[in-house]
């Protein structure tokens, strides 16, 4: 599906809409954890929206609900004007995880071509798109390398190139820079913004990092844990393009504080330990298997 | 060639084989060293406690070259022929009254015959193992039901099973191939059940996000991910298939393979102990050669993966 077709389906409408969504994980028929409760969220075309919250607030589950990798217990998930499962079958979105999840037996170029192979694009088309995407993430000269020869940040850029190779309407990113050091992370933030401005893809971005969420997004959705709820939505009115100067502006610090307060109000900050696995997260991954 | 001149990728890992080359030379030296140690120990035992050393193949009354101080039963020329006697026998006719074919040619022909049976059994066993593992991975119910029987089947000694197989399918090459297949499929099945499941669950999520079919997930993710496991099992199966073929040949009534050769030389051991040792050497060389073929295939197929050069 080309981006032209994708746009025409919901011209003017939101690209993601969740209404009254609950997600309860059960074991053996018995409900065990309420990962999400009463989620109402609308995301407009071309927006950059971050989901932030403490471990166990269900943000990764929410991302997977949008991607139809998990089904809601209640409520509906509309993506690109269709139910989420049809959007998945229509390949309307690309996904980037915290780990690059590249196939070690394929070269960098072949990894980027993977979704295009599955979607039946011609060989010439595949090669052209792969080259284009690798140039976009500035890894063109590493096309014939194997993943193990690249650093973590470079592998993650390959994963992003792969996710964008088929021009999805939406990009779902689950803490993609969580495993990187601070400096690489800030550089990758600028990379993502550059790519976002070039392609106009709608991005839903899950993160633990308040500065990252504020720097990147048009809106930050603040969530609380147990049960997972949206407690606040902070509109980020920082001017674009955003750069190093943005990170030092007074308005930036005000917004970071606003988000932090939103987290505290939701009871988020006492348990804020990035990278810790929570029962909800493990169940989310197990339930997909 | 120093490591400083080797090409490096972005992470500083070696990109050329210059460092691998040094490692390989070291392995060759080690192998030769081990052979040398075996030689020294072997002849050392005969040096100290064997029968008097004479020219190889000389008549009993010929001059003694060395008289060992002790006499140990284990070190006499019947139980422990001299290394050079064994090696020289390769070049001599093995049935002087019947033909001028030397032992080396005869053993080589027998080994090739056995290898053909083993190779067919190996391929069939590998395919069977792969098919079983694929079914078990996709249909959990069958896995739980059948794997215990698969394991139990392997605990029956092949010596007991071989006559049963011959009884069922008749004497001949087919029986030998069946026995070789039987010994080969098990390591492949067990390794591939693990291998096909060894995929990162997020890779499966990724494929689902592309709306890939189960078949696409199998061919594009599970199978490539399982190849390292497959090759480990194939190395075991390679040697197992040769053992199976050798054992099966006798029961199966095959005359031309190593199985019959070893049985015959065992029977007539007193008239030429070095011939049996020669046959054993050839059988083990066959196993090593098959193993190395698999290893070479592994290096080619697994190129580009981290740790591919190891093992």
Could you explain how this protein is built, in words?
The complex is a heterodimer of chains A (289) and B (311). With 289 residues, chain A is α/β, with parallel strands linked by helices. Chain A contains eleven helices and ten strands. Chain A has helices at 3-9, 59-66, 84-89, 108-118, 123-136, 152-164, 182-199, 210-216, 244-247, 250-265, 279-288, and strands at 16-27, 30-43, 48-52, 74-79, 82-83, 93-96, 170-174, 202-207, 219-224, 229-235. In chain A, the strands form two sheets. Chain A has a six-stranded mixed β-sheet, sandwiched between helices. A four-stranded antiparallel β-sheet of chain A has the order 2-1-4-5. In chain A, helix 4 (108-118) packs across helix 5, helix 5 (123-136) packs across helix 6 (152-164) and helix 8 packs across helix 10 (250-265). Chain A is globular and about 50 Å long. The relative contact order of chain A is 0.18. The model of chain A is unreliable at 1-10 and 275-289 (pLDDT under 50). With 311 residues, chain B is mainly alpha-helical. Chain B has ten helices and no strands. Chain B has helices at 18-49, 83-89, 103-138, 140-155, 158-169, 173-197, 201-209, 214-252, 258-267, 273-301. The relative contact order of chain B is 0.10. Classes of the chains: A alpha/beta (289), B mainly alpha (311). The A-B interface holds A 64, 67, 69, 88-91, 93-95, 97, 99, 101, 103-105, 107, 114-115, 117-119, 142, 145-146, 148-151, 154, 285, 288-289 and B 9-11, 13, 15, 200-212, 216, 220-221, 224-225, 227, 302, 304-306.
SSE inventory with pairings:
The complex is a heterodimer of chains A (289) and B (311).
Chain A: H1 3-9, E1 16-27, E2 30-43, E3 48-52, H2 59-66, E4 74-79, E5 82-83, H3 84-89, E6 93-96, H4 108-118, H5 123-136, H6 152-164, E7 170-174, H7 182-199, E8 202-207, H8 210-216, E9 219-224, E10 229-235, H9 244-247, H10 250-265, H11 279-288
Chain B: H1 18-49, H2 83-89, H3 103-138, H4 140-155, H5 158-169, H6 173-197, H7 201-209, H8 214-252, H9 258-267, H10 273-301
């Amino acid at each position: 599906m080309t981006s032209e077709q994708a746009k025409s389906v919901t011209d003017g409408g939101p690209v993601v809409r969740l209404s009254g969504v609950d997600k309860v994980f059960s074991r053996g028929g018995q409900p065990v954890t309420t990962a999400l409760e009463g989620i109402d969220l609308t995301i407009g075309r071309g927006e950059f929206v971050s989901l932030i919250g403490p471990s166990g607030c269900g943000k990764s589950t929410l991302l997977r609900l949008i991607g139809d990798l998990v089904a809601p217990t209640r409520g509906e998930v509309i993506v690109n004007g269709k139910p989420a499962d049809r959007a998945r079958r229509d390949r309307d979105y690309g996904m980037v995880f915290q780990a690059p999840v590249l196939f070690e037996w394929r070269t960098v170029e072949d990894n980027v071509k993977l979704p295009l192979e599955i979607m039946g694009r011609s060989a010439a088309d595949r090669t052209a798109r792969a080259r284009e995407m690798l140039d976009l993430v500035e890894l063109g000269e590493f096309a014939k390398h194997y993943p193990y020869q690249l650093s973590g940040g470079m592998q993650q850029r390959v994963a992003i190139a792969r996710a964008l190779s088929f021009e999805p309407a939406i990009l779902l990113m689950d803490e993609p820079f969580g495993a990187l050091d601070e400096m690489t992370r800030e550089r990758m933030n600028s990379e993502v913004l550059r790519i976002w401005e070039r392609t106009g893809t709608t991005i839903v971005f899950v993160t633990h990092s308040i500065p990252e969420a504020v720097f990147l997004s048009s809106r930050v959705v603040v969530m609380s844990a147990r049960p997972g709820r949206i407690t606040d939505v902070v509109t980020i009115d920082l001017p674009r393009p955003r750069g190093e100067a943005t990170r030092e502006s007074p308005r930036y610090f005000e917004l970071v504080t606003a988000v932090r307060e939103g987290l505290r109000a939701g009871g988020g900050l006492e348990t804020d330990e990035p990278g810790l696995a929570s029962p909800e997260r493990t169940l989310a991954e197990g339930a997909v298997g | 060639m120093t490591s400083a001149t080797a090409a490096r990728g972005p992470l500083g890992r070696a990109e050329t084989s210059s460092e691998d080359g040094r490692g390989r030379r070291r392995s060759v030296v080690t192998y030769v060293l081990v052979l040398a140690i075996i030689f020294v120990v072997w002849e050392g035992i005969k040096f100290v406690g064997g029968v008097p050393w004479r020219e190889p193949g000389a008549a009993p009354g010929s001059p003694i070259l060395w008289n060992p101080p002790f006499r140990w039963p284990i070190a006499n020329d019947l139980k422990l022929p001299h290394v050079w006697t064994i090696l020289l026998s390769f070049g001599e006719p093995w049935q002087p009254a019947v033909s001028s074919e030397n032992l080396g040619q005869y053993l080589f022909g027998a080994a090739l015959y056995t290898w053909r049976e083993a190779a067919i059994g190996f391929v069939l066993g590998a395919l069977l193992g792969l098919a079983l593992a694929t079914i078990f991975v996709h249909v959990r119910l069958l896995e739980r039901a059948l794997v215990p029987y698969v394991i139990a089947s392997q605990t029956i000694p092949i010596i007991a099973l071989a006559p049963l197989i011959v009884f069922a399918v008749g004497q001949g090459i087919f029986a030998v191939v069946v026995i070789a297949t039987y010994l080969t499929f098990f390591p492949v099945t067990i390794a591939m059940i693990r291998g096909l499941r060894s995929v990162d669950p997020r890779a499966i999520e990724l494929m689902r996000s592309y709306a890939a079919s189960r078949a696409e997930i199998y061919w594009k993710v599970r199978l490539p991910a399982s190849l390292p496991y497959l090759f480990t099992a194939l190395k075991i199966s390679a040697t197992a298939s040769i053992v199976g073929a050798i054992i099966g040949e006798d029961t199966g009534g095959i005359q031309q393979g190593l199985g019959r050769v070893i049985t015959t030389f065992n029977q007539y051991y007193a008239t030429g102990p070095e011939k049996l040792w020669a046959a054993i050497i050839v059988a083990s060389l066959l196993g090593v050669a098959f193993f190395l073929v698999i290893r070479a295939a592994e290096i080619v197929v697994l190129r580009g993966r981290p740790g591919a050069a190891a093992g």
